[in-house]
Amino acid sequence: MEILMAFVIGILFMSATYLMLSKSLLRIIVGTGLLSHGAHMLILTMGGLKTGAAPLLGEKAPYTDPIPQALILTAIVISFGVTAFFLVLAYRAYQELGTDNMDRMRGTEGND
Amino acid sequence: MINFLILPILIPLVTGVLLIFASKRIMLQRWIAGISSVIAIIFSALLVQKVRVSGIQTLDVSSWEAPFGITLVSDMMSALLVLTTSIIAFLCLIYSFWSIGEAREKFYYYAAFNFLIVGVNGAFTTGDIFNLFVFFEVMLMASYVLLVLGGKKAQLRESIKYILVNVISSALFVIAVAYLYSVVGTLNMAHISVRISEASQGNPPGIITVIAVLFLIVFGLKGAIFPLYFWMPGSYYAPPAPVLALFGALLTKVGVYSITRTYTLFFYHDIGFTHQLLSFLAIMSIIAGVIGAIAYWDIKKIIIYNIIIAVGVILFGVSAMTTDSLTGSIFYLIHDMIIKASLFLLAGIVIAITGTSNLHKISGLIKRYPGLGWTFFIAALALAGIPPLSGFVGKLLIVKGGFEAEHYWGAGIVLLSSLLVLFSIMKIFINGFWGTPRAYNEEDKVPVGKMLIAPVILVIIAVFYGAGSEFVYPYILQAAETLANPEIYIEAVLKEY
Questions:
Q1: What is the reported pTM?
Q2: Closest Cβ opposite residue B171 in set A35, A67, A71
Q3: ipTM score of the complex?
Q4: Which residues of chain B does A65 touch, with a Cβ-Cβ cutoff of 8 Å?
Q5: Which residues, in sequence order, are bridge partners of residue A53?
């Protein structure tokens, strides 16, 4: 099961890398979404995918490992916050700069 | 009082929350933020003294025992860095009063400022690897807001790049933590160290080395080391001076601290490969930084590339792994935080006066602003490491440690880099402050006298830090001893080991 998950996560990382290397800003943000999906599934996989009950004390033992689930929950809300900020920033940048093409967002003032 | 070491995190957190409710009342905001950061300085200083007297302070949050709950650990290095952070935060704050402008102050500037300090102090104090990730994110999110606040075109453009790089490095951090968790099965830093030692009996497994390199990539992205510094010159060019001073002094140094912590606490068993790699990357950062610092004719760019040089020098000391070089690294780390903050604040004043950071368009400032000129001169000498000032002792110890570890090439490059750092910073002084004075448009509007308070205090601290190194040395030696002997740290956290 872990090996199958490793392949799935690898494909997610591959797509994320491909999207983040493209020119359009929205594709890049979709790429970051896929990257965080991959990272979260990796925590779950690396914590071990043994069969067991949900980590609730009422259930019958053995339980699955609760720590990776807590870590994922934390990482999900953090990446949710950052993605929301990033999307609004992209919207604002589109209004101000009039482009979503990363090639046209180049350069800093004062290069000489 | 066992909760003592949480105060440098808690005070800015509560202040940040309070400031959200006072967003339209600027004077109230300034008073709250100012007073609370003075209190934070006092408590951090007391914390340093407490660590000095009674050893490493640990706090098991909610009284869950060490490997199972989150443990906050304040050893001497953390305590000193927290104190330095609090001082720099206070001075950047009072500089903001006269320079940041009402429009930003009304839109939660001081709240974001305090949350940034929460993240930095938390990252220095935590003893849990996933909690370190969370504090990194607190710090980074506050830095996104501070970077983009104001919404100028350059800020929007550079924020996009900065956020993208940091989202990727945060995902890599999560991946690295997942790998480490699957190998050692714990998140508490001291316990990770114990488990890695147990696993490395005789033959250290290769996966540990892979994880070590992955952590180096993650923290190297935050701390701007050689192949991973590409995002920094652009991103740090965009924000206004006090924000830039905070970023330059604190953010990259958190990455440097994390590399130091992980490479002295976790990955010290098979140092042949990892520390060789670290020392190579450190030397390459010095070279890349020096090339950038010499090449540009722009005040901000020159100082930004000097950050990369300093990161390289500090990490070279860490990679040598002798007590001398580690002492030197901590010495230099604290010196560099202070001096980079003061240089960016001074550069901010020059830009406020002249309206440009291009050295070709500035000259003769010392005629009208002698105080500014001489402060900049002393800061420049301190940066290069001229003996009575603060940069000297750290670099001396790093070079000494480098020679002891037989890294002759590296130590030679560190010495040579000082010369070129001096050249790059004197280029600013000679071209900007000497020569014939020019007329600038905004001269009368800038309250130079008030804005000079913060950088002058920082330079005075730098002078005393250099001249009084005899007084500071025992503290820093204590910090280096903990780094050189991880058993001290482990025993303090996991009582029964």
A1: 0.95
A2: A35
A3: 0.95
A4: none
A5: A63
Question: What stretches of chain A show up as alpha helix (H) in DSSP?
Answer: 2-20, 25-46, 66-97
* Residues B104, B120: Cα–Cα separation, whole Å: 22
List the beta bridge partners of residue A24.
A101
Query: Which residues neighbour B303 within 8 Å (Cβ) at sequence distance 6 or greater?
Result: B248, B340, B343, B344, B347, B425
Residue B200 is predicted with a pLDDT of 75
Chain B interface, mutation test: which of A30, A76, A82, most B Cβ atoms within 10 Å? Answer: A82
The secondary structure of residue A65, as a DSSP letter, is P
Torsions phi, psi for A63 (to 5 deg) = -100, 160
Q: How far apart are the first and last CA of chain A?
A: 56
pLDDT of residue A112: 39
Query: B179 CB near a chain A CB, below 8 Å?
Result: yes
* Residue B30, token pair as written in the block: 């300034």
Q: For helices B153-184 and B129-148, give the axis angle rounded to 10 degrees.
A: 180
Extract the tokens encoding B409.
Answer: 């090439």
> Which residues from B are below 8 Å from A75, CB to CB?
133, 174
Amino acid B192: pLDDT = 93
Peptide bond into A62 cis (omega under 30): yes
Beta bridge partners of A101: A24
